[in-house]
Amino acid sequence: xxxxxxxxxxxxxxxxxxxxxxxxxxxxxxxxxxxxxxxxxxxxxxxxxxxxxxxxxxxxxxxxxxxxxxxxxxxxxxxxxxxxxxxxxxxxxxxxxxxxxxxxxxxxxxxxxxxxxxxxxxxxxxxxxxxxxxxxxx
Length: 138
Fold this sequence. Notes:
- The chain is an all-alpha fold.
- The protein has helices at 23-38, 43-63, 65-68, 82-101, 106-128.
- α1 (23-38) packs antiparallel against α5 and α4 (82-101) packs antiparallel against α5.
- The longest helix has 23 residues, at 106-128.
- The protein is globular and about 40 Å long.
């Protein structure tokens, strides 16, 4: 069954720059950006740190895909396309931009809200698309 709409995800034959899982890098971009700015880290450094965190998270996600992906209703051998990895980094940086635009502590609340939306999306997707081994988030 081919996924469409909100639950479609990045695949090698249908690469997507962003998908529902991109809510998670958006959320940590907002949260990290908000925290760094509140700690007095300069704007260029905050963006640089978030880029580093985003790249690191993409490396970890795709290196440990065999353990992480089945939790989200994806096969263990599924890895992100280069387009999706780049899109997730850009989305995380956009999250930091949102943290700049929204005053403290509302930016932190926005980041937590986006994270909650990403978790709900992931749980619903995993329930709709269980892996062959039956792994899911619940």
